[in-house]
Specification:
single chain, alpha/beta, Rossmann fold, two-stranded antiparallel sheet, 8 helices, 29% helix, binds adenosine-5'-triphosphate, binds magnesium ion, binds zinc ion
């Protein structure tokens, strides 16, 4: 069990990245150099935010990028569980070394990795969570990363906003399911992104359809996908539309999500590079 160092408040700097960014952010560990930090958000829980974060991290990693995942959603143990992480973070003199995923070596930090029992996550309260997330940024030795993906708490209210304020984000990705995807959700995200002065990279519509196992036809079990319509109405690009795939949830349940290849996400590393090109650490 690692003793987390005290959280220092009011000690803010820009993170040695883009000084235009408001508000002031804490400096990362001196051994941390991250090119792009992206946060993944959703209008509500259960839409597949963590799955999409894990799949995107895996896709990036397979393309040769160095990737980390900061699990800022402490309400569920999904990120470490999906990746099947057994290792714990290691405390070193002036920081915390994150464990790596068994398959691709993605560095992961999550509150669940610090708790003796996974279910204890629920007792954490707002200020404690905020402090912990800040430490995941400041005290974790992320090393040299091309991408750090942040799995935000669900919703478009205070919780994700607080997290976003602790980190110098380069972009936001919204994950939605057809039932939850509405212009209103995306508009809320746009407002939040504007407050944070962070661009929205785009939208991933998850669980949009089922491929019939017999004929391959798309079955729209939850109604027509909304992605294209919402994208057209809000101007937020639709990045990908993912089907419901029982094989994905099976792999995730077994801690083997890295073994899943989502063809629908294959173009994203290239797209992200292009969108974020001007940001160099
Ligand atoms: N495209 C998909 N096909 C099949 N199952 C999926 C898909 N996306 C997610 N799931 C499953 O749905 C459940 C919820 O997914 P996940 O944990 O990623 O959602 P979340 O939005 O992060 O939820 P939470 O709000 O609890 O953090 C999981 O059991 C996951 O395996
Ligand atoms: Mg989740
Ligand atoms: Zn069929």
């Amino acid at each position: 069990m690692i003793e987390l160092p005290d959280v220092k408040t009011n000690e803010s700097h820009d993170a040695g990245k883009d000084t235009k960014k408001q508000p002031a952010h804490e400096k990362p560990h001196q051994l941390t150099h991250i090119k792009h930090i992206l946060a993944v958000m959703s209008g509500k829980g259960g839409v597949g935010k963590s799955s999409v974060t894990a799949l995107l991290a895996s896709t990036l990693s397979r393309k040769g990028y160095h990737v980390g995942v900061l699990d800022a959603d402490i309400t569920g143990p999904s990120i470490p569980r999906m990746f099947g992480i057994k290792e714990r973070p290691t405390g070193i003199e002036d920081g915390i070394l994150p464990p790596e995923t068994p398959g691709l070596g993605i560095r992961v930090m999550s509150m669940n990795l610090l708790l003796p029992k996974e279910d204890e996550a629920v007792i954490w309260r707002g200020p404690l969570i905020g402090g912990a997330i800040k430490q995941f940024w400041k005290d974790v030795v992320w090393g040299d990363l091309d991408f750090l993906l942040v799995d935000l708490p669900p919703g478009t209210s205070d919780a994700p906003l607080t997290v976003m304020q602790s980190l110098p984000l380069d972009g936001l990705i919204i994950v939605s399911s057809p039932q939850d995807l509405a212009v209103m959700i995306v508009r809320k995200a746009i407002r939040m992104a504007a407050i944070m002065n962070v661009p929205i990279i785009g939208l991933v519509e998850n669980m949009a359809y089922v491929n019939c196992p017999k004929c391959g036809e798309k079955i729209f079990a939850f109604g027509e996908p909304q992605g294209e319509k919402v994208a057209a109405e809000t101007g937020v690009p639709l990045l990908a539309t993912l089907p419901v795939d029982p094989y994905l949830s099976r792999l995730a349940d077994r801690g083997k999500i890295e073994g899943y290849r989502a063809d629908e996400l294959e173009h994203l590393p290239h797209l992200l590079e292009q969108r974020l090109q001007h940001k160099v650490s």
